[in-house]
């Protein structure tokens, strides 16, 4: 992969969404279907999600101007767009506003026929698919009409090529979804299936948590991205904003 990395690369999951709240309620109530009127792309932030995004924006605003994001690359899904806009609106006085670029390669993993179903709903309505899902594991399992993690990783490879080509040496903030955060880590940290799924099993990526990388010079020839922060939550804690970890999809199979 091209060595001209951004100076700093932040990867953030969107704030808590109305979908996260509805999924949690459906799972807690033992329901098969998540009660949502919107398409997945149109699900907005919850009131708490807006507060989380504002707290994150204020944290970025307190950084020195030369350390704040210059470019924000965002999923087209409404919950991510709202998060990105709330963050960029609060960059400090006198700072040049970060440019906002929407990129469909950062969209949520597509669930296909399993969309809006809880874990119980999948077991009840698609028992054969559930058995296949348990056998294959989430990394390779592709539901009809949906994506596997590998499919997501394939589109993210081209996204990273664009970032290194167009934003090398700049400060870039990516705002997207839980699976995107994990799949970006898989690529940037050169993991294998078992390593990233071990991380995934440790718990959901918190809403508005920050994972970041900084470019360092390696051998005087090429930039190397070094992991700096993982699921950093101080921006929310400093603002006394509750931390949430609702999943975007049913609890997945252990490979």
Descriptive overview:
This protein has 255 residues and is α/β, with parallel strands linked by helices. The protein is built from nine helices and six strands. Helix 6 (149-166) crosses helix 7 (178-188) and helix 7 (178-188) runs antiparallel to helix 8. The radius of gyration is 18 Å and the shape is globular. 39% of the residues are buried.
Layout of SSEs?
Layout: E1 8-13, H1 18-28, H2 47-62, E2 71-74, H3 78-89, E3 99-102, H4 119-125, H5 127-136, H6 149-166, E4 171-176, H7 178-188, H8 193-201, E5 210-218, E6 222-232, H9 234-238
Parallel strand pairs: 1-4, 2-3, 2-4
Antiparallel strand pairs: 1-5, 5-6
Share in helix? 25-40%
Straight-line N-to-C gap: 28 Å
According to CATH, what is the class of one domain? Alpha Beta
Report the CATH architecture of one domain.
3-Layer(aba) Sandwich
Examine the coordinates and then state which fold CATH places here, giving the name of the CATH topology of one domain: Rossmann fold
Flag low-confidence runs. Answer: none
Following the backbone from N to C, one meets helices and strands in this order, namely EHHEHEHHHEHHEEH
Count of DSSP E strands? 6
Number of helices: 9
């Amino acid at each position: 992969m091209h060595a001209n990395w951004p100076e700093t690369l932040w990867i953030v999951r969107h704030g808590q969404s109305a979908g996260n709240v509805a999924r949690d309620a459906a799972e807690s109530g033992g329901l098969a279907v998540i009660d949502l009127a919107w398409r997945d792309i149109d699900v907005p932030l919850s009131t708490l999600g807006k507060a989380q995004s504002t707290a994150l924006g204020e944290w970025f605003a307190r950084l020195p101007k030369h350390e704040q994001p210059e470019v924000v690359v965002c999923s087209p899904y409404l919950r991510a767009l709202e998060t990105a806009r709330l963050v960029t609106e609060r960059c400090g006085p006198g700072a040049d506003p970060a440019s906002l670029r929407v990129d469909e390669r950062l969209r949520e993993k597509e669930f296909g026929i399993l969309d809006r179903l809880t874990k119980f709903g999948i077991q009840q309505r698609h028992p054969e698919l559930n058995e296949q899902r348990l056998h294959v594991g989430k990394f390779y399992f592709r539901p009809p009409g949906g994506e596997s993690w590998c499919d997501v990783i394939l589109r993210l490879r081209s996204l990273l090529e664009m970032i290194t080509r167009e934003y090398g040496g700049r400060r870039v903030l990516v705002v997207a979804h839980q699976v995107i955060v994990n799949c970006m880590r898989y690529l940037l940290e050169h993991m294998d299936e078992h390593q990233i799924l071990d991380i995934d099993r440790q718990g959901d990526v918190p809403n508005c948590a920050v994972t970041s990388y900084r470019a360092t010079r390696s051998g005087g020839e090429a930039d190397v991205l070094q992991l700096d922060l993982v699921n950093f939550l101080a921006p929310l804690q400093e603002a006394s904003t509750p931390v949430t970890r609702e999943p975007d999809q049913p609890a997945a199979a252990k490979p």
